[in-house]
Amino acid sequence: MAAEHTDGSRSDPLRYLSAVTIAFGLVVAGFLVANLIVVPLLPVLSAFDLSIRSTPGYVGSTLLQNVGFAVVVLAYMRYADLPDLFDVRWPSLSRPRRLLRDLGWVLVGFVLLVAASQAVSIFLQGIGLAPGTNRIVSAVRADPTLALYLIALSFLATGPGEEILFRGGAQGILRRVFSPVPAVLLSSALFGLAHATATIASSGLAGAGGYVVSTFLLGLILGGLYEYTDNLLVPALIHGAYNAVTFAQLYALEALSFHPYF
Q1: Which terminus of the chain, N or C, has fewer Cβ atoms within 10 Å?
Q2: How far is CA 190 from CA 83, 129, 180, in A?
Q3: Average pLDDT of the chain?
């Protein structure tokens, strides 16, 4: 990865602590800005007699929040003068072999993510720690058409936004000091913990625990593939595809429940 440092100062304990602190602070800042950037949306929704929990509210807030994630990471890169914090390799037809390689890893990563998700869900249920439900799932059940918007936003906002924050930002910072394995583990831990708040409201603390564990393990796959491919687009596309398929399945289930004769 472009952000990796290999000098002898890596063994300095203060550098480890500093990297963890900055990575944690970046994630916290990302969520703070993501919440603040949604505030101007509230009066607009109110003017149309809509709440933030309406379908337009979820669509608008999802888009803005992920823009906020990206803004925080890009601002940090400029502030810290780290233009190489993360690696992005845009598709190019002039390099067909490299393009096919990246697309192949997207496919492999998506299959791994789906398989891991199912395996983790079965394991957690077996030990009585079933993963909770994200509050956005409850919103889709209330209005299945929301899922159709979220399918598009999975690729346009959620996948890129979260990957920029957690893999590009947090893992990029950690990778400047740590070797690959601890950097991926720590960024995945942040990824899992950050999703707890979205689950507690709908599933309570018990459900949030299972969801954090599940998200952490999925983060390991995304972080590992980013480390291996040196291309943030790979985990961003995998993340987006995974979310999109999840929402497509949810839409199909909920749509059938509204139309039982089809």
Answers
A1: C
A2: 23, 20, 16
A3: 89
